[in-house]
Amino acid sequence: MEDSIKLTTIRKRNNYLPYILLADETEDIIKEYINEGEMFSIEYNGRIVGVCLFIFPSLLSVELKNFAIDSDYQGKGLGKLVVKKAFKLYKDKGLHDMVVGTANSSIANLAFYQKAGFRIDDIYKDFFARYPEPIYEDGIQALDMIRFRKKLT
Questions:
Q1: Which portions of the chain are predicted below pLDDT 50?
Q2: Are 103 and 113 in contact, with CB atoms under 8 Å apart?
């Protein structure tokens, strides 16, 4: 299955907005970061099933800023394979760690990142309060960002 996943650099990022919106529901917020860093389409058996966007908050660190897989392909282990490929990609580029943030309300994401080897690193209180519309998941309002870190070395 690992060989059936491919990450391909995206040049025209706005064409992938429907995928990006799967992970971040606010287009105005997306516009603040869509042109930063490196963005890849996630291809599975030759079909585009998602995107991932990485930015570089420091010289030795990479942040997984946006990561979305079409709901038809979730729960099949593709996300785990994408993260594993990203770990290798950025370790090979000499980066030391990867960070990612998700909402306190994103129960599935909180579990996913920990299973992938990330550890809780920080909590940004009221991070999602700046969003124009409240976000609810599983009956929980997204208020705080839970920040995770994984050493790549």
A1: none
A2: no
Contacts 24+ apart (CB under 8 A), 133-142: 133/26, 135/25, 135/26, 135/103, 135/105, 136/105, 137/103, 137/105, 137/106, 137/107, 138/105, 138/107, 140/104, 140/105, 140/107, 141/105, 142/103, 142/104, 142/105, 142/106
Q: State which residues form the domain around 24.
A: 2-151
Q: Which CATH number fits the domain that encloses residue 125? A: 3.40.630.30
The span from the CA of 51 to the CA of 9, in Å, is 10
Model pTM? 0.92
Angle at 145 between CA 144 and CA 151, to 5 degrees: 150
Average confidence score pLDDT of the chain: 94
**Number of folded domains that form the chain:** 1
CA proximity to 119, closest of 97, 138, 142: 97
